[in-house]
Specification:
Layout (H helix, E strand, L loop, with lengths): L8 H23 L4 E3 L7 E3 L17 E3 L6 H7 L4 H7 L15 E3 L51 E3 L9 E4 L5 E3 L4 E7 L7 E6 L4 E11 L6 E2 L4 E5 L8 E8 L2 E3 L8
Antiparallel strand pairs: 1-2, 3-4, 5-6, 6-13, 7-12, 8-9, 8-11, 9-10, 10-12, 10-13, 13-14
Keywords: Lipoprotein
Protein name: Lipoprotein NlpD
Organism: Brachymonas denitrificans DSM 15123
Length: 270
């Protein structure tokens, strides 16, 4: 290129300006060899382009247990996606990650413990991103009455003689033999739901409620000794044995669980 503007003062000034511009361009090229590139992890700010081969850990790329940082990722997002604690990743890469908030696209990180090391911190579960994926709600156990699932009953009479075996279709309970006037006692603590003779076939009848699950039934008594809504204790005498609406002296005894009759012998002591 010819820069001949004549020997005058104007020509000399022109040549000085052109040379200064060229020097500035050369100086800029020498001090900033990196061209700007947009990196989404920095919120859209332009930063110099970096040759991945010059980044820490690049020689370990594509090896098992290592991961190459992608645009938009952070230490925490990498840890989350690999079910790790981000502090473990920082610890395993401490030689080239002095600041966990400054990692570069293309950098290679160790994401498995090195030999002799373990993940000492608790892994963080991956974030659920799919709309169809939901975290199950914690199971809540509804409150229930104490002893409602089962109940310990006492024999309602001194006699253990079974004169009528249990039959869920025919009699729905057991018949316990005895003598007229023998005491009939509450099989467990409870409240008198019914005391009377209004149910045909049961004679003088007492029904006790023990909780929201269990009822007991005492039938064919000669005499009732409790009233409705009265609280009774286990072993308390509630009636006297008889044969009202029955062909012989006996106590007809039922156990009902959630309204259904069950074999009383399953709940009575042997």
């Amino acid at each position: 290129m010819t820069l001949n503007q004549g020997p005058g003062r104007g020509g000399r000034l022109f040549r000085v300006a052109v040379c200064a511009g060229i020097a500035a361009v050369l100086a800029a090229c020498g001090s900033s060899p990196r061209a700007p590139v947009e990196n989404r992890s920095t919120g859209g700010i332009s930063i110099p382009r970096v040759d991945p081969a010059t980044l820490p850990g690049y020689e370990f790329r594509n090896r098992p247990g290592y991961y190459q940082v992608q645009p938009g990722e952070t230490i925490r997002s990498i840890a989350r996606n690999n079910n790790l604690d981000w502090r473990d990743i920082v610890r395993w890469n401490s030689q080239w990650v002095p600041n966990p908030d400054l990692i570069e696209v293309g950098q290679v990180l160790r994401i498995e413990p090195p030999a002799g090391s373990v993940a000492r911190t608790t892994p963080v579960a991956p974030r659920v991103t799919s709309p169809a994926s939901t975290t199950p709600a914690p199971r809540v156990t509804p409150p229930s009455d104490a002893g409602a699932a089962s109940i310990a009953l006492a024999w309602p009479t001194q006699s253990r003689t079974i004169v009528t075996p249990f039959d869920d279709v025919k009699n729905k309970g057991i018949g316990i033999g005895g003598r007229e006037g023998d005491p009939v006692t509450a099989a467990a603590d409870g409240t008198v739901m019914y005391a009377g003779s209004g149910l045909r076939g049961y004679g003088n009848l007492v029904i006790l409620k023990h909780n929201t699950t269990f009822l007991t039934v005492y039938a064919h008594n000669s005499k009732l000794l409790v009233k409705e809504n009265q609280s009774v204790k286990k072993g308390q005498t509630i009636a006297e044995m008889g044969k009202t609406d029955a062909d012989r002296v006996k106590l007809h005894f039922e156990v009902r669980r959630n309204g259904k009759t069950v074999n009383p012998l399953s709940y009575l002591p042997r």
